[in-house]
């Protein structure tokens, strides 16, 4: 198996085991066995379980957000990004995310890595949409993007894990039209 194929097998095995047994019960030897790789191969690339798990989740969520065609306007671009985030939360990712959040409460190393890497990735999820809107002249350069990611993530998380209310297209459309677009347009006025 080539290096890239081996890495993909290791990351896939990591996600599968996380979904099956959770972070706390996942063992590196089980990842190695499932990926048909040695533990030495895994440890050459990732110094520990926390780094491996974060890399696997980052790669998985990045794949869902990448390669989205430009719909031609900010509103539709935001809707597409929100649908991708929603689909991740309502699919297998929900269990992974909840397990990760639970593990972060008692694993300081994992919490530090997640905060250092994944939170920035989440904030960058909207960069392609914002960049295209700037290129089209819909938004000014220098726009503060952090609030967009925070608000959108919080709203999705609340519905998915707290209130249990639907995360349907009607909600996403309302969220984009009544919250996210006004937020970005207001923040654009501050830029």
Task: Characterise this structure.
With 191 residues, the protein is mainly alpha-helical. Helix 1 crosses helix 4, helix 1 crosses helix 6 and helix 5 packs antiparallel against helix 8. The longest helix is centred in the N-terminal third of the chain and has 23 residues. The mean pLDDT is 86. It contains ten helices and no strands. It has a single domain, classed as Tetracycline Repressor, domain 2 (Orthogonal Bundle). Helix content is 79%, strand content 0%. 27% of the residues are buried. It is elongated, with a radius of gyration of 18 Å.
How many domains? Answer: 1
Query: Span from first to last CA?
Result: 50 Å
CATH homolog superfamily: Tetracycline Repressor, domain 2
Strand proportion, as a percent range, falls in under 5%
Shape: elongated
Task: Enumerate the spans where pLDDT stays under 50 for 5 or more consecutive residues.
Answer: none
Q: What share of residues is helical? A: over 70%
Summed up, the helix count is 10
Question: Main β-sheet: number of strands, strand sense, barrel status?
Answer: none
Structural class: mainly alpha
Q: Compute the average pLDDT.
A: 86
User: What is the string of helix and strand elements?
Assistant: HHHHHHHHHH
Please provide the count of β strands: 0
Query: What radius of gyration results from the CA coordinates?
Result: 18 Å
CATH hierarchy: architecture: Orthogonal Bundle
In CATH terms, what is the fold-level topology?
A: Tetracycline Repressor, domain 2
Q: What is the CATH first-level class name?
A: Mainly Alpha
Protein name: TetR family transcriptional regulator
Pfam families: TetR_C_11, TetR_N
InterPro entries: Homeodomain-like_sf, HTH-type_TetR-like_transc_reg, HTH_TetR, Tet_transcr_reg_TetR-rel_C_sf, TetR_C
GO molecular function, one term: DNA-binding transcription factor activity
């Amino acid at each position: 198996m080539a290096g890239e194929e081996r890495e993909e097998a290791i990351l896939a095995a990591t996600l599968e085991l996380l979904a099956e047994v959770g972070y706390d019960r996942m063992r590196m030897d089980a990842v190695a066995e499932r990926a048909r790789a040695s533990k030495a191969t895994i440890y050459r690339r990732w110094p520990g379980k926390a780094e491996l798990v974060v890399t696997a989740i980052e790669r998985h969520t990045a794949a869902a957000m990448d390669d989205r065609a430009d719909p031609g306007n900010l509103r539709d671009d935001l809707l597409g990004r929100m649908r991708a985030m929603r689909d991740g939360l309502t699919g297998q990712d929900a269990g992974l995310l909840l397990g990760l959040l639970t593990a972060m409460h008692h694993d300081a190393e994992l919490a530090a890595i997640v905060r250092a890497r994944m939170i920035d990735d989440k904030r960058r999820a909207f960069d392609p949409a914002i960049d295209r809107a700037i290129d089209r002249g819909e938004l000014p350069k220098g726009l503060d993007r952090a609030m967009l990611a925070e608000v959108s993530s919080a709203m999705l998380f609340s519905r998915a894990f707290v209130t249990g209310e639907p995360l349907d297209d009607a909600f996403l459309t309302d969220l984009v039209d009544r919250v996210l677009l006004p937020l970005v347009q207001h923040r654009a006025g501050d830029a």
